[in-house]
TrEMBL record:
Keyword Signal part of the UniProt annotation: yes
GO molecular function, one term: hydrolase activity
Residue ranges of domain Bacterial Ig-like in the record: 20-121
Name of the featured protein: Glycosyl hydrolase
Entry-linked InterPro entries: Big_12, Cu-Rt/internalin_Ig-like
Source organism superkingdom: Bacteria
Record's keyword terms, sorted: Hydrolase, Signal
Presence of the UniProt keyword Cell cycle in the record: no
């Protein structure tokens, strides 16, 4: 019955539709958890569903830099290159993503923070240890053992 009191006639059928209210979640994996001088590593970001607005500004990175963020499967899996800070030793580091800055294909924003596995950085270049110049020589050195010491052959195995 409508507002004027008229009885309805027939049956109205609406089309079926699906409602997507699922928020995207993410995992972060740092491939090499022990980084030393000159190394980089791949970082993989895997979402529960494809996302559209994910970029490097969405990430918090400890003691390094992420570059080359790409996806090859429509936005579900992303990879980036991590380069650690030079001249640093720190055993406890992570990468974090606040998923509220990322949305899925239907506009649902995430509602959690994803944190990577821990990675250690040791990018301190060792000191070059050289003897003082007065100890450097190209002259041959002759060793004359005392006559009372018997000589024994040296065998390397």
């Amino acid at each position: 019955q409508d507002l004027a009191g008229n009885a309805g006639v027939g049956i109205a059928i609406s089309a079926n539709y699906a409602l997507d209210a699922t928020r995207p979640t993410a995992t972060i994996v740092v491939a090499d958890p022990n980084l030393t001088v000159g190394e980089t590593t791949q970082v993989t970001f895997t979402f529960s569903e494809a996302v559209t607005d994910f970029d490097l500004s969405d990430l918090s990175v400890t003691n390094g830099e992420l570059t080359n963020l790409t996806t090859s499967d429509g936005g579900k899996t992303w990879t980036a290159t991590f380069t650690p800070t030079v001249n640093l030793t720190d055993p406890s580091n992570f990468i974090a993503l606040d998923t509220s800055n990322v949305s899925d294909q239907t506009g649902n924003a995430g509602a959690s923070v994803a944190v990577s596995n821990n990675y250690a950085i040791d990018t301190v270049v060792p000191n070059d240890v050289k003897p003082p110049p007065e100890f450097l020589t190209t002259d041959p050195v002759t060793v004359i053992p005392p006559s009372e010491v018997p000589l024994q052959p040296i065998v390397f195995t």
